[in-house]
Amino acid sequence: MRLDVIGDDNFDHVLSYFSRALRDERRIPALLIKPSMAGEAREALKTCRQVEDLVSWIESYVSESGWGRCLTAVRQRRYSEGRPETTLYRIDKKLLAKLRCEAKRRKLTLEQLLETLLK
């Protein structure tokens, strides 16, 4: 496991991820090396105050797949912070072509055109 990615900048994110994950019994089998040690893992996690403590805890309790899931969650959180929320919509190809033409004519992006049309 690449535990060197845990630093002061994401310590809180990793700690909160595992705290939340250990509260959900359905997630424990994919998270821990030995799911039967969930209670012990919860208690040990409460004592993690520094990066070194958390790294040691992960090495003792977390499975490869559990660590992979945590990394994915931390990356997604880092990526989404400070960015506007986006949603995908399906638009008919003909309508999309018309919107693109109109945006090009007005020298706007599609997003700018949609904002203009909605005002």
What does this structure look like?
- The model has no long low-confidence stretch (mean pLDDT 90).
- It contains seven helices and no strands.
- With 119 residues, the protein is an all-alpha fold.
Itemize the secondary structure elements and their pairings.
Layout: H1 11-23, H2 28-31, H3 38-46, H4 51-61, H5 64-80, H6 93-106, H7 110-118
> Which consecutive residue ranges, at least 5 long each, have pLDDT under 50?
none
Distance between the termini: 50 Å
Strand/helix succession: HHHHHHH
Assembly state of the chains shown: single chain
Roughly what is the average pLDDT, rounded to an integer?
A: 90
Summing up helix and strand content along with how strands pair, one would put the structural category as mainly alpha
- E-strand count: 0
Rg computed from alpha carbons, rounded to a whole number of angstroms = 22 Å
What is this structure, in a nutshell?
Helices cover 65% and strands 0% of the residues.
Write out key terms for the chains shown.
119 residues; mainly alpha; 7 helices
